[in-house]
Amino acid sequence: MNGKMQLCRVQTHLFIRNGRVYALDVAGMRVHDLSSAEAAILSMSDDAFSAITSYPENDQQTAKAIGDLQERGLLREERDMISPRFVRADLALSNLMVNLSEVCNLSCRYCLAQQGSYGREGGRMSEQTACESIDFLIRQSKEKEITVSFFGGEPLLNLQAIKAIIKYSREMEKNSGRKIIHHLTTNGTLFDEQTISFLKESGCKVTVSLDGCQENHDRMRVFPDGRGSFDLICRWLLRLQDGYQENVQFESTLHSETCDFAETARFLKRFRAGRIYIHHARGFVKEFRLDDASLSIMKRAYSEFASYILEDAIENGSTILSAFSHFISTLASGKRARGYCAAGINLLSVSKEGRVYPCPGFVGREDYALGDIRQGIDPDKMARLQERLADVDNIPTCRSCWARYLCAGGCIAESAAINGSPWQPDRYSCDLNRHIAELSIWIYAELLRQRPDFFLSLQPIPEDIQRLMAS
């Protein structure tokens, strides 16, 4: 015995892409570009690792690799092994999604809201309830800047409630000292000259759902009689964007039949929107739940999209928000994710009656209601939700997954829809999330290597995009 402490390997995930070896320090949330010798040491059996790190006469290359891995923190003495950096998921409400309308004039095939009604009797929120939602947000939030998101259904079917909220918000800004931002998510088919003028005058930000080219868009986003909605949307887009581009963004929802993400990004860039957010359809509708065939298609599509995202970022410094964005932002922070999205942390959702839920994916499911805007939030229900969100290691299927501190258990609303519990992730979604996480690690590592200045201007994911991720 020479008294030397045995070295241990931290939990890492290694993968190869384009001939380079990348490693994620799972607990330390650090990404590394490895040499072949370093990768071999991290990949060898426990017995071989114990032998090589105990042998005093290692060759120069092996000795250097061991030393470099120690410097990187990937090899540590047992007493120095660290736990993941823990970030509590306490409610820090800054964004309230208000279901002004639980009816819709479209019948989009993948709609989580089941054509706007959330699987129950549809209807519109009263102006009184709409304004009471503002009171609730001001009471619950400690933030100086808060956001009210008009959601549905199609919120423009209740334009009077939008006007009432904006008018009331301006009064409450004076009384509360808060800045209240308004954001509309719309299918874009109900614009007219008066509505566009009102939105611009009020400074309301607008997200238009546009699934890329007409062929792809009109396969999914249709009227009840089957007609596509692309032409009607485009009829008003230029008028909406005129002098207002920075306040208009697009959201595209793609699936295995239309998942050319890169081509969709190229198409939407022609509209010169303030932001573009592209993601895949969640499994709220059985038809769009992943299976072996669609998973393979989506993985291939995301791999191609990752190459496009990286090339665009290196050459143009631009950011297209996507499923990669949350993971890259988490890696850049060096801290574990506080949740898959902002649901139950920075964001809550309100139904047309004023019931409060973690996000739109739970609206109408009373077992997931957290309270209501008049009586407030049930502290016990909120505490249980936050406890779960805070510790992904308590989810049995996540406990040993290398990506758990990046995805934080995945979309809890999707898990509830597919498996009946927010804490029982869908195995296909997990597989796709791990693939997206690997691609995010690659994008992040290559940007650090080829364009490190990209991260000087990297901002946290905007709240309006967090809201979209929760929908």
Give an overview in words.
- The chain has helices at about 35-45, 45-55, 60-70, 125-140, 160-175, 195-200, 215-220, 230-240, 260-270, 290-315, 325-335, 380-390, 405, 410-420, 425-450, 465-470; strands at about 5-10, 10-15, 20-25, 30-35, 75, 95-100, 145-150, 180-185, 205-210, 250-255, 275-280, 320, 345-350, 355, 370, 375.
- With about 475 residues, it is of the alpha/beta class.
- It has 2 domains: about 5-80; about 95-380 and about 455-470, Aldolase class I (TIM Barrel, Alpha-Beta Barrel), CATH 3.20.20.
- The strands form 3 sheets. An 11-stranded mixed sheet has the order 12-11-10-9-8-7-6-13-14-15-16, with helices on both faces. The protein has a 3-stranded antiparallel sheet with strand order 2-3-4, with helices on both faces. It has a two-stranded antiparallel ribbon with strand order 1-5.
- The protein is globular, with a radius of gyration of 24 Å.
- Mean pLDDT is about 90; it is low at about 465-470.
Walk me through the topology.
Blueprint: E1 7-9, E2 12-17, E3 20-25, E4 30-34, H1 36-43, H2 46-54, H3 60-72, E5 75-77, E6 95-101, H4 127-140, E7 145-152, H5 159-176, E8 179-186, H6 193-202, E9 205-209, H7 214-220, H8 230-241, E10 248-254, H9 261-269, E11 275-280, H10 292-316, E12 321-322, H11 323-333, E13 347-350, E14 355-357, E15 371-372, E16 376-377, H12 379-390, H13 404-407, H14 412-419, H15 427-450, H16 463-469
Parallel strand pairs: 6-7, 6-13, 7-8, 8-9, 9-10, 10-11, 11-12
Antiparallel strand pairs: 1-5, 2-3, 3-4, 13-14, 14-15, 15-16
